[in-house]
Amino acid sequence: MTQQTKPNDPNQSLRQDVRLLGRILGETIKSQEGERTYQVIEQVRALTKQGRKDELDAAEVIQSMKEILGNMEIEEAVPVARSFSLFLTLANIAEQHHRIRRRREYLLDEDKPPQRGSIKEAVSRLRKEGKTDTEIFETLSKVNVELVLTAHPTEVKRRTVVQKLNEIGEILQHRDSPLLTENERLETEEQLKRILHEIWCTDEIKRRRPTPMEEARGGLVVIEQNLWEVLPKFLRETSSDVEEVLGRELPIDFCPVRFGSWMGGDRDGNPNVTAQVTRRVIANARWLAAELYYREIDLLRAELSMADCSPELREIVGDAPEPYRAFLAGVRAKMGSTRDYFAKKLEGGELPEGEIYESEHELRNDLMVCFRSLHEKNSGPIANGRLLDILRRLSCFGVSLVKLDFRQESEAHTNALSAITQALGLGTYAEWSEEQRVEFLIAELENPRPLVPHNFSATEDVMEILETFRVAAESHPESLGAYVISMAKRPSDVLAVALLQKDAGVSPPMRIVPLFETRADLESASDTMSTLLAIDWYREQINGAHELMLGYSDSAKDAGRLSAAWALYTAQESLVKVFQDQEIHLSLFHGRGGTVGRGGGPTHLAILSQAPGSVNHKLRVTEQGEMIQAKFGLPGIAHRTLELYTTATLQATLSPPAAPKDDWRAMMTEMSDVACSRFREMVHQTPGFVSYFRTVTPEQEFGMLNIGSRPARRKPGNDISSLRAIPWVFAWTQIRFMLPAWLGLGTALQHQVDEGKLSELQSMYKEWPFFQSTLDLIEMVFAKASKRIAQHYDGALSNHDQTSIGNILLSEFDASKRLLLEVIGSEELLQNNPVLRRSINVRNPYVDPINLFQVELLARLRNESEDNERLHQALLLTINGIAAGLRNTG
Fold first, then answer.
1. Least confident of 99-103, 287-291, 357-361, 433-437
2. Closest residue by Cα to residue 548 from 577, 574, 518, 525
3. How confident is the model at residue 866 (pLDDT cuts 50, 70, 90)?
4. 153-186 pLDDT, tens per residue?
5. Which strand (E) or helix (H) includes residue 756?
6. CA of 888: how far to CAs of 308, 596, 627, 658, 802, in Å?
7. Of 413, 489, 557, 792, which one is the catalytic site residue?
8. What is the DSSP string of 510-547?
9. Which residues have a Cβ under 8 Å from the Cβ of 681 and sit 6 or more positions away?
10. Is the C-alpha dihedral spanning 342, 348, 349, 353 positive or negative?
11. Which of 308-322, 355-369, 371-385, 799-813 has the lowest mean pLDDT?
12. Main-chain dihedrals φ then ψ at residue 482, nearest 5 degrees
């Protein structure tokens, strides 16, 4: 019983799992690659561990490893890099499983208080703050979190490998059973050996770029394999806890968390996402939903063998001896027809005839006939089993699994309208003033006649935009989410989408969500929305509620993390006030990524540190690629993630953080300006910076790798502004420098220290959740960074003319870290988070050699006169390994 080996050491079981996986991996490498390769791996591992223990020998260690790796042929070196990458991935699995194990151990200990972030703990905390049980219950009943799944443009592992890795997590969980016999335990080791051999012998790298359709299908895997089962268990436990602590029963359609998707709908800068792709993605989601419900209804029909039923059900089935089975046979047949219909629609074949389930309401009505009958006949325990689970899934997933958002850049709509106005002889829409645009748009929105001529023809891009709106018009509303406008800057950007929806016949129209991304757009967002809400036509259309999206990625790329964080915070404050004054309910959609540089961080902390009033029952958040697997890849982790989103939203609604003091606000504004100025001075204004960035990081190689359907750049060009935020952050993360997260911070903090405000900064950190969470996340970034590794990239890849840029950045890195520690009152990084510090320290010796190997590969690739596919694949292995070691990278 591994969990009982050393009860006073909570990490003993984790160490045992890691040692077991490491031993089996070593045996696998020996058998597949030979003793010599295994010994080289051990030599490299010993060297890196020595370098980490003794900083004085670090340069010597790096030089020794350079010699080892530099003298290797590519065929010999690949398994060395791959071994470290796979070990880090296995360590991640073991850590995730250990989180589940520790949670179970905690819940089994009756003497411990409720776990932080649980329903019971949240209720206890809110009661202590003076909230009544009625307030808590009513607020919880309204909690509405939507997690929007997005593609993973930095994922290189094939889905088949990910599935095998998930199997390892399941085996580790099985090994924790205290009832396993010795033979059964040995069998689990044999299973692990088989799976690791399968992984090692499988080509784990994608050989071609995934299509948007493949990305969309991959995104639904986590629902099919995990969330489909986890969701009803989570709701069952939540309902039970609420009944226990509040003495009230949640309604059966209570579901605080739902799911949306951007995969197959996000066409912003991705020419591969076409109207036809979107049409197929919607059909695929409907097909999978029908397949999953069909299986459940079939199992439910087998269970409900009872003969007695309600008059309502009897009237439907007549004298059938098994009324529930007779009734559900019809439900199953209709669901089968639904499945077949969308299968044909997906294939593009002739659509079959037959009645299908169009909406959630139709299926719920049928199932509720059985639910009411069972309760009426005193069979509540039966009704509250599989049948209730299906009803709860229906509340979460509907009949489409996810609601698909569409996203497009505002300029694309402007171009489409310009083509239309030119065809109508009205001039060029793009050249009109904002007042002219709004006047034209409102007049057309109020005009019942169509805008686009029947025989209208334009460029392929414009026709594609119009066809996208036609796809929305032909799709069932329950398959559609929001229409997100990226780079939204003015009211006409929103009204343009409203007009294009109206002309295409989208009814009811998709809700329109402007996305404010740059620092300037965030600062003007409240003025933009005030102007828009002053338009009578628009105000009547929104029915007292509005959603806005805030962009974390592009704001940070534009101004730096510290400045972006403050711009996002103040934007939320000003927007909350605008909508409160207008008595309109505001919902915020947070476009966060996995990294700190893109708004990433612990879920609970992120929600509880938002601006007061910005979380009002409702919250939308993007969950991107790797974070989908990290948060939902294992059932136990998925359950905890759903719980944390629910309780954090409850707490942030009922007990938001206090507004900052005026002095703190002034200091933060000043720091934001200083940090932004420094960030832009270096990134956007320093001659040679772009060239330096592209030289010392693997950014220019990303375009050659099959890691996403979307191009790395929105538009052609070599400047930072044309580069997407994800590869910008990902490239710096690969070299362990994480520049987007910290650049500008040191300058801003030093400015305040020079003015004698160190103690005030320390008070801000202790008492203001927003400032504390901002610095804590940057502290984590510094802990994962490695100056000496970044220095090695600089020394090995940059040229003489770029040396000064590297020296400046490395010096600023040190200064920023020193000032951060001074403000948070710590002598070393993560002093107050020993669990995370240990996790990072354990990983570093395994990430270091992958970084050194990547430098060697980049140098070889750039010196090759011809394209070398093997070098590209080896580079992918290093990218994957570094990402696995650092975890939140995309």
1. 99-103
2. 525
3. low
4. 445 556 677 788 889 989 999 999 989 999 999 9
5. none
6. 55, 8, 7, 30, 29
7. 557
8. PEEEEEE-SHHHHHHHHHHHHHHHTSHHHHHHTTTEEE
9. none
10. positive
11. 799-813
12. -105, 160
Q: How far apart are CA 315 and CA 401, in angstroms?
A: 32
- Residue-wise over 353-379: b if at least 16 C-beta within 10 A, else e? eeebbeebeebbebbebbbebbebbeb
3-class DSSP state of 259: strand
Place of tokens 């050699």: 849
Closest by CA to 740, choosing from 675, 807, 646, 799, is 675
Exposure class string for 284-313: b at 16+ Cβ within 10 A, else e: bbbbbbbbbbbebbeebbeebeeeebbeeb
Residues 769-808 as b or e (16 or more Cβ within 10 Å = b): ebbbbbbbbbbbbbbbbbebbbbbbbeebbeeebeebbee
Angle between helices 388-397 and 228-246 (to 10 degrees): 110
Query: How far from the centroid of its chain's Cα atoms is residue 888's Cα?
Result: 10
Structural contact between residues 888 and 92, judged by C-beta atoms closer than 8 angstroms: no
Residue pair 602/594 in contact (Cβ under 8 Å)? The answer is no
- What is the DSSP secondary-structure string of 33-74? H-HHHHHHHHHHHHHHHHHHH-GGGHHHHHHHHHHHHHTS-H
Give the pair of three-digit tokens for residue 855. 């430098």
SS3 content of the chain, % helix, strand, coil (to 5): 65, 5, 25
Query: pTM for the full model?
Result: 0.89
Which residue carries 């414009």 as its tokens? 462
What does the longest C-alpha to C-alpha distance in the chain come to?
90
Task: Confirm if 468 and 268 have CB atoms less than 8 A apart.
Answer: no
Alpha-carbon gap, residue 758 to 760, rounded angstroms = 5
Number of helices followed by number of strands (H, E) in the chain:
39, 8
Confidence of residue 53 (pLDDT cuts 50, 70, 90): low
Q: Whole-angstrom Cα distance, residue 889 to residue 698?
A: 14
DSSP 307: S
Q: What tokens were used for 319?
A: 């004298």
Q: How far is CA 522 from CA 527, 528, 554, 607, in A?
A: 10, 10, 11, 19
Question: Is the pLDDT reported for residue 310 higher than 90?
Answer: yes
Q: How far apart are CA 734 and CA 698, in angstroms?
A: 8
Residue 557 annotated to the active site: yes
Q: How far apart are the C-alpha atoms of 70 and 65, rounded to whole Å?
A: 8
Give 512's contacts (C-beta < 8 A, 6+ positions apart).
482, 483, 485, 494, 497, 498, 501
**Contact at 8 Å (CB) between 593 and 600?**
yes
Give the helix/strand (H/E) hosting 721. none
Query: 144, 650 in Cβ contact below 8 A?
Result: no
Q: What does 413-468 look like in DSSP terms, one character per residue?
A: HHHHHHHHHHHTTS--GGGS-HHHHHHHHHHHHS--S-SS-TT----HHHHHHHHH
Distance CA 57, CA 10 (A): 33
Q: Which two three-digit tokens encode residue 146? A: 């939507």
pLDDT category, 440, cuts 50, 70, 90?
very high
Structure tokens at 93: 């699995």
Task: Give the active site residue among 152, 157, 164, 403.
Answer: 152
Distance (Å, rounded) from C-alpha 256 to C-alpha 642?
9
pLDDT in tens, 322-374: 999 999 999 999 999 999 999 999 988 788 888 999 999 999 999 999 999 99
Measured CA to CA, the distance from residue 502 to residue 7 in angstroms comes to: 65
DSSP for residue 271: T
152 has catalytic annotation: yes
Within a 10 A sphere around the Cβ of 401, how many other Cβ atoms?
27
pLDDT at residue 831 greater than cutoff 60: yes
